[in-house]
Amino acid sequence: MQKLRLRYAKRGRLRFTSHRDIARTFERALRRAGVPMAYSQGFSPHPKVSWVGAAPTGVASEAEYVEVQLVDRVDPEALRTALDAVLPPGIDVLEVVESAGGTLPERIEASAWRLELDGVSPEELTEAVAALLAADSVEVERLTKDGKKIVDVRPAIVSAQVETPAEAQSSDAGHDARDLSQPCGILMTVVRQTTPTVRPDDVLSALRVVADLVPPVPAKATRMAQGRLDDEGGLVDPLALDRAAEV
């Protein structure tokens, strides 16, 4: 039995695809690529695929993770190439490594997000972010399948900073090009995974609460990284230990 860990990107219009559809697409790709998958036991066997903290629908990502178990050993790079060839444009397998043990979820406790707010100047966004960081508690209302729920966003925010205009380039090459004649505030924020999970739209709602900041068009969110927090509030690559074990 071989366990492989994959990092993949969800780009462009594929960001609107639900996680359920992404999972189905991956399973079809695994079959088409002839990957020797291990299957569960029982009356309805399923391929042994484990997803880790999938990004919400409507959100792009450069750092999604999934584990697969195989009955025969394969070369990780060969698997990456084979899968990338059969997956639709917008779902890109970036890296495949062999598991060095442990569990992947225990290596992930926070996400780095990039929020692009078209029509909002960096100066306006900087003032709103300062108000957010100065607050001890920022409660926002979220609509769930069980009704409305109040979530305190502030404790989950590890850091937040506004990029300079020179750095304000789209984080997603597959996304529609934005109007460069309009101002665009770029917020980089690290958010700790809590219960309930604080999502990018919750951070935007918090900016509205503390500074009445409402972008004229929907903001675009991209998850740039996931991992454990280091002493400086940065993220440790969850595949670093597996990569080191291969050397």
Automatic annotation (TrEMBL):
Residues of the DUF2344 domain = 3-200
Q: Could you tell me the superkingdom of the organism this chain comes from?
A: Bacteria
Q: Mind telling me what this protein is named?
A: TIGR03936 family radical SAM-associated protein
